[in-house]
Task: structure prediction
Amino acid sequence: MTPTENPSSNPDISAASEVSSSQSTALAKSFARAAAIMAQLRAPGGCPWDREQTFDSIRRYTLEETYEVLDAIERKDWTGLKDELGDLLLQVLFYAEMAQEAKLFTLQDVTDNLSEKLIRRHPHVFGNREGVETSAQVLQNWEEIKKSERADAPNVREASLLDQVPRSLPALMEASKLGSKAASIGFDWSEAAPVFEKLQEELDELRQAMASGEKKAQEEELGDVLFTVVNLARKLGVQSEFALRASNAKFRRRFAAMESSAAASRPMAELGPEGLEKLWDRAKTDERKGSASE
Result:
């Protein structure tokens, strides 16, 4: 299917639309209502706070809402997830409304563009491309189509392959994507094992920087250690962002267990390093026993 073809002309999509026509009508009304509410909030006489916002001012809320969605998923809080997804959708409505006010694009432009992109990048579903049976093949096709789109896009001139990775991403995610982009042209380790040698090299350089006492050098070398660890995660097929979030959650659990244990005796601040270490070891042991019994 070419990008210029009308998605509704595809028989598979048309058939699916007929089956769920009543659901689609209800969804369309619900979506239109949310968009109308957002427009009213931004209109004269609407909400003073909403009217004051700009693309720049609400960026931080977009990031916060994204992480709240991830938190709800990690906690398997499905009721909370419904609410958080609504908050994330609000960000989309907000940006689209501001864009329409500035005569940049409309909310329909956003949804139409998304539908066309999904169809264009899934030719094995909506087009004639055959032989796609695995997720790896799907991802390969997806990247090839993205490259073709960039080549055809007007006013898009990337000086470097890595320019495709947004600089605004969280640092762990940016590092992983930078490594993936470099790997796409063969600049990568063949497997995970050699990365440990690079990690040891970076740790040695960090120790040297610590011995020198130069804070700038320490920051740089610590960054190299983190970058190498992220790429080790990538070679292992692990998302470093999620791995660190899981460790953060584990630290929260164990620290809370320490607080519970200390509550029966005296404040944790009075226990000293040895006492705190014993509480930590106990929390780890109890958690492992609990996991083993499940």
Summary: The first helix runs from residue 11 to 19.
